[in-house]
Task: structure prediction
Amino acid sequence: MQISKEQIQLVNKKVEAGHESQFNFLAQTLDSKGVDVNAVVKKLADFQVAIPSWALGAGGTRFGRFSYFGEPSNLEQKINDVGIIHSLTQTAGAISLHIPWDVPEDYNAIKELAAANHLVFDAVNSNTFQDQKDAKESYKYGSLSNVNKGVRDQAVQHNIDVVEIGEKLGSKSLTVWLADGSNFPGQNNFQTAFQYTEDSLKEIYTSLPEDWKMFIEYKPYEPNFYSTVIQDWGTSFMLANACGDKAYTLVDLGHHLPNTNIEQIVATLMMKGKLGGFHFNDSKYGDDDSTVGSVKPYSLFLIFNELVYGMKNNPQNPYPAWMIDASHNIKDPLEDLIQSLEAIQEAYAKALLVDQKALKEAQLANDVVVCQELLQEAYRTDVRPLLREARLKSGGALHPITAYRSLQVRESLIEERGKYAVASGL
Ligand SMILES: [Mn+2]
Result:
């Protein structure tokens, strides 16, 4: 199923007048404060977030998985789903593939399908956290850090194969996330595990094409519960530096212990030119994979405040690769992703409204109260009319969730694919 521009226009018609008056009022208010509203709207329209191929079906926990009907069961259907989200939101112009779950059979056909859906291929993700069918070695005790050289070699080769697949699709980056670690004290030698990981990453890095980047993701726990080899941003940063200029740290919002100051991590990495990628989600306790902005929207805003500052003031840092990394257990995955995109855009828009000049002055004067007022002034602005204007200008839906439901997208997908189609992946 595909959604046409005409269908979206028809749905928009009913709410266009209301939007216009709300937008004009906000634009006037912001204009009087010296905000260049058109520039903000353009930035929102340009901001694109990749959707990972594994987020389109129902996820699950170790206790159970509750299927969502009409899930995409092959790569073509996954691309179609992202195309649907993109046509409604105009914010999801890229897809991120997981190998070996999504190896294309016909590369040209897949590239054509993506292009027809106005999508590009974002980072490719390797998988050394599961054993693959007919694999010679097992990752039960780790992959790039394994004490057995045969296992490490297999894991390195897998990453090289993933890069080759990505090259055929037009991807420009590889994301490495390791499940490596230990479940019990004494199980691993920390120093050896780190050294093997560094050596393995360097080997992968050597095979990286000239115009590619390698993102190194960190996580403090899970699936290993005593230690992980790449536990935090500092470890990832050390490994990226050991590899070279094309290696970067990737920040995943869910991969932090509770109350970690993620905005400060973002600021430090950007200052050092090493923030390569960013994974959005939200959580209450840990890596909960919840809808972006559903639990801690103010934290997300503070993080975006640093991202906006970094994108403006840190030319040494490349433009980060944005991706949603979440899993949906009880919602329609497409609706959840639309909500996530809205929350990302909202936090971004609010961060763009922060009066950076006044903030700098207040910081220099040690006026703590004004510093807080300036951030909260931006945060308290209802920026949703700006998001709607950006979508309207790009041909998207003013209210994507309402449009998704009134166009009966899920019903059509179930009709097309059958009720019990199950997404490939985890
Ligand atoms: Mn992630």
